[in-house]
Fold these 4 entries.
Entry 1:
Amino acid sequence: MKILLIGGTGNLSQACGELLVQRGHQVTLLNRGKSKAEFPCEVLQADRNAPGAMKQALDGRVFDVIADFICFDEKDAAIAFEACKGRCGQYILISTTVVYDKPPRVLPVTEMAPLGNRFSEYGRKKEAAERFLLDKFAREKFPLSIIRPSHTYSERWLPNPVTSVGYTLAARMEKGLPVFVHDDGQGLWTLTHVRDFAVGFAGLCGAPGSLGEAYQITSDMVLTWNQILRETALALGVSSVEVVQIPTDFICEVVPMMSDKLRGDKACAGVFDCSKIKALVPDFDCRISFRQGIRESIAWFKEDPARQIVNPEHDQVFDTIINAWKKHSN
């Protein structure tokens, strides 16, 4: 198939592009050209936010599948619709499980769970993109499929409550500095390695009967946040880590931006039913445990000291929250 990835060089899309090429598909990327893909492909350079740029870049081209990894709100969806209509047999919106009402009313969460995240602006914007494109599917037969991943990670990511990007968490552990976990750390959470996600994604590309439908693509392996931090420390070879347990409400009061991340997502149970995608894509089976995945991540960072970047703003979030809690508790 001829497949266009809008984005194509990010945490998620890179793995998807690699697998598509391995399976013999002809892959094209559309992005601003600021990052280079690590797989053979054609690249169309355009800034989707520049008026008419995306539509002009696709002029005269037709694809079997267009997958949009960087559609974040209704405005992005409208631009994609105008640029992609009549140019593909299937348009895949990469949405998110953050669109669901939080906390979930029933576990595991299915695609039928009610939408409307009161705590996450990110989730509400993604929901607006879904609704806009579903309307175009209903009214104009726009060939839409929706994918809702949860927390995905690659060798470049170290999952934690603040941010998965960079080496900040690992550096704190190595230096003996404390890290925090929300509440008692026993909240259930699902982490999906991007290579496992890519199998579900690739199987959905061009799949008959998938138009107008939403699919969750996540792992079945559920962890607690305590386990996530413990496995990260073990992968680093750190024998002892001070993990401070702090109530979610206190964290969000001290650093309000954490409300979107925690109340809107990570502080809620993340357990998902993926039977719908498994019925459509029989070879989708998440096999990479977090123990394996986090060791690959640490090995990637250790290969080159230049990768071990500590973000001072993220580091400050850890310090601000932990210091405030220790002062409050004394």
Note: DSSP finds twelve helices and twelve strands in the chain.
Entry 2:
Amino acid sequence: MKAVRMVDTGKPLELQEIPTPDIGERDILVRVCAAGICHSDAHYRAGRSTMGQMPITLGHEVAGVVEKTGSQVTNVKIGDRVCLHYNITCGDCYSCSTGNEQFCDSVKMLGHHVDGGYAEYIAVPARNAIHLPDEIPFEAGATLMCASATALHALTKSRIKAGETAAVFGVGGLGLSAIQLAKAMGAVEVYAVDIQQDKLELASEYDAIPIDASRVDAVEEIRKLTKGRGVNVSVEMIGLRKTMEQAIDCLGNLGRAVMVGLNQQPISINTYAQVLGKEAEIIGSNDHLLSELPLLVEWARRGILDTSRVVSQVIPLDARKINQRLDDLENFTSDVRVVITP
């Protein structure tokens, strides 16, 4: 089969011909119909994270059709449309048994530790498969497995409730999902912070209040619009020191700032004025849970979460085009989300 693979850090991905993967008795073979290109993939290619193997097929946002099942698989059958939870876990360790499988002692992430979806086929444990309703295109189903799922987990961690206000920093695939999900979870006002006008216009169409951080100070504007109170919840989706600090600074009393964006730089906090005095919280959000995905897919099926405009471009399984997209992500392109359709 064909696969676009990372052969070394800091180098372009390469198209290779490799064997179609074998499956075990509890596994499934999925024909990949869509694989999302995530900002994390650009980080992997740049060498910012240790990979589980090399060469490796990137791609952790995957949707497709079940082509083959192991002898003990009962939850899906050949021909089923599925999207794939990207964390492969043991199911037995303390973290798995307490519902925190992202911290599994032996967790392996698709496209990071084991081969992912930039390929014609992928093999995964059957329990990683979530049924994808006919109403949801494969391209949207793939992005649900990362951007939308991560946004839902972050908002769940924030404990947002009906009547509260929220600020979303970064209106990419993550941010657009977070805006809609915050509304679905009861937020009365959601402020969308970005510097790209097209993204802000799209956010306003989802009933968010746009804040152009290239023209105004985002924190001052949020405080002005909330009559000085600040927001109950902020979610940082970019991974920049400045926006992380702003996400904390815009909180009101008892506010909760959830950090999602990847950043290796330290941030500066006035511990009393920004945290202790307000009894505010800074919360880390890491990946998402398999148990959260069926609800997410159902919300997408019902249109509560609109996925029709998340994917901005579809490209083939072409190494040059995939590398170009990863280059664009390094430069914070204005595109929302690109999906490969092998």
Note: The mean pLDDT is 94.
Entry 3:
Amino acid sequence: MVAGATMRTEAFHAEVGFLDVAVVLAESWKLIVALPLAAVSLTYLLCSIIPTGYTATMEISLPAVEDQSVLTPVLRAAFASSEGVSVKFDDAFLTLSVSKSGPDTARAALAAARSSMVEAANTVVDEQDARRADLLARLPNPGDGLVLAFLRDQLFPGAQDHIKLEQWTTFAGTASIEVQPNRPGAPVFAAVAAIVAGMAAIFIALMRDGWRRAANTPSGSRKIARIRAAFGRI
């Protein structure tokens, strides 16, 4: 009997506690609805005022050259390109990124950096072609294209690197540029703001009800008086 009565008492107190919370939430429904709506409206207003930044990114695979110095002009042009361009380099890839206030501005800045790299690579290729043509013009005409190719490769041991760099200029000139906003859109921020505001409204309603209940008890009223006195001394 005692155990059964204890269980019924615990169930009663649990039910009363749940009903108390339900009553508080029902009485504070205006606050619970109004605060998230205000948060959503404020979020959309701020998102419309604060400009969204955009980041343009471009990744280019580098030619697998044996002589890394062949890539020196390209890398120098990448690092010295448009202001604000971030460059990451490893043995296989060159990644450039830049953040601007608008998508077109970010894309244009990265396109300018790409043009600078391609121009630097083309300059190297043109210089090598000019030196090669000048040297071959000074040689006796062997009358055989294979002999000319053999002499070219012997006189220019980096011929394969030269060919790879020349092919790379075409590939790099068409490398794609991806533009993404720096932060999520207004709906994401609005949803987060609504959830946080809703939880805050429930917390405020429960705290307000707890404060009112405590004020109706002798011990609670003394504690509230001490809290008010503490803030009064600030």
Note: Residues 177 and 200 are 43 Å apart (CA to CA).
Entry 4:
Amino acid sequence: MAGEDDFDLTVAHKHFSAWCFNRAWELVEKPERTEAEDRLMEALSHASIFHWISRPDCTDKNLAVGYWQASRVQALIGNAQEAIRHARTCLGYSTDLEPFHLGYAYEALARAAGLMNDAANSTAYLDRAESLAEQVPDERDRQLLAADLAQLRSDVADAFGKLRE
């Protein structure tokens, strides 16, 4: 049996921070998931954050992206309180980042507020995210954020329209 000295924990954290994030993302993008897949998606997202925190090269950007994904996962499984909690954590790590990442922090807040049926905050967060999207210098990143925000705005409008009916 190999001793602990034969195991490079830093290499493991580097591998699993990305592997868990990517595997969770595959489940995020899956149109239909089982309950077991939802639990796996949630665990993978949290595991990714754990492995990032354990890396000596971890940055605020890494954690902002990790907590953004965690918020998205919680929104997908319908856990509004955890979605907003992770979105707020994402925002905390994003405040000094470029508009792309800060915009996605507000996207997460808008999504979570929408899930909580908070139309006023959801709309305000979307407005802030759209303003930040306009400041993203990279065309591809700007279009990606803008498209996600347009889809979210449509989803939120549909959801609040159904609430009014």
Note: The mean pLDDT is 93.
